[in-house]
Amino acid sequence: MYAVVLSIDMIIYTNPDMAAAQKTIIIFEYLFFSVLMTMPMPFLLHCCGESQKSSVPLRTVMALWGIFCIVLFSSQFTDAFYYTADNQYFRAPLFPLMIAPLAVIMLLNTACLIKRRKKLSKKIFTALLVYLLPTTILVISYMFAAVDTLVSFWMALCGMTMFCLILTDNVEKYMKQQREIATQRADIMVLQMRPHFICNTMMGIYYLCDQDTKKAKQVTLDFTTYLRKNFAAIASEDTIPFSAELEHTRAYLAVEQAQFEDSLFVSFDTPHTMFRVPPLTLQPIVENAVKHGMKSSGEPVHISVITRNTDTASEIIVEDDGPGFNPVNDNKPHIALNNIRERLELMCRGKLEISQREGGGTLVKVTIPTV
């Protein structure tokens, strides 16, 4: 609105027949100009988590702005502050008194910002300081010198700079929140491990202790590795080496194969391991293939895990010859796969694609761009 009023002022400034309109435009020009100076205080209080209703600085700012508005509207009935003649604008002796409340507002804004700097992020503090400090100096100068154009230009420039800094800060906060949400979902997924899988494994180990002690020891070791990797994923806030995720997956499959040794066959072709992935990326994909493949038919399930390095990305491919996946007709909420997809996008700009495998079954492809 301030820019619109300034544009109208520039149009009628050179037209002597618009003298009455010129004086009215000046009222709106100063009014919108002053509103820009009251806005930083409530924003500052919001960023600091302080109540605006009981804020003494905010009440002071609004009181000063009220005084300015009273003086501004009173100036229409006197030439003591400013006057127009032949459609030209002139300052009067009491002009500094009209601008004085605005100068005090800016000084108060700046003082409150500096006092609360430890409560603000670095970007928010910098953005407000970039806007307030130069504008305060210019408003004080404006009380004694005709720097109208410079004030308008500088306020617009500082305002845009402040907006860009605050926008980037908000984007960073949003991305951080999304990463935290994805991590929390991963934590929940780990904590909600299938109870029957754990129970079946423990019972399997129990019976193996009498039938095959050596195998029971190996399954116990694999199961311990699987559990340790799951709980380590909870504490991880960053990507991990793919080799660690591969070890986790092998431990999980070793436990499953101990229970379904005649029904579950797995092959690995993973020469490329020198890249990083979000924790719990490969293991849940493989677990999903095992769960749906073993549940859907009595036929043996074959799963292959492949990695390859292209010029632009690292790829992980998991194939199975189970019942297959139809993205059109399958309305089941694939929570684990959606969780992996979200974390891949947020943590390493990766993507996950699911398609039907040639010859039947499902193909899951993870692509992680090379940094």
Query: What oligomeric state best describes the polypeptide chains here?
Result: single chain
Major sheet description: 5 strands, mixed
Q: Unreliable runs, pLDDT <50, ≥5 residues? A: 328-333
> What is the number of helices?
12
- How big is the Rg? 34 Å
Q: Work out the helicity level.
A: 55-70%
* Distance, first to last CA: 45 Å
Number of strands: 9
SSE string, helices as H and strands as E: HHHHEEHHHHHEHEEHEEHEE
Report on this structure.
With 371 residues, the chain is of the alpha+beta class. The longest helix has 44 residues. Helix content is 63%, strand content 13%. 26% of the residues are buried. It is elongated.
Give a quick rundown of the structure.
The protein is α+β, with helices and mostly antiparallel strands. It is built from twelve helices and nine strands.
Features of the shown structure:
371 residues; alpha+beta; five-stranded mixed β-sheet; two-stranded antiparallel ribbon; 12 helices
List the helices and strands and how they pair.
Elements: H1 2-12, H2 19-38, H3 40-48, H4 56-74, E1 82-85, E2 88-91, H5 95-115, H6 122-142, H7 148-191, H8 195-211, H9 213-235, E3 240-241, H10 242-259, E4 264-269, E5 276-277, H11 282-296, E6 301-309, E7 313-320, H12 335-348, E8 351-356, E9 362-369
Parallel strand pairs: 4-6
Antiparallel strand pairs: 1-2, 3-5, 6-7, 7-9, 8-9
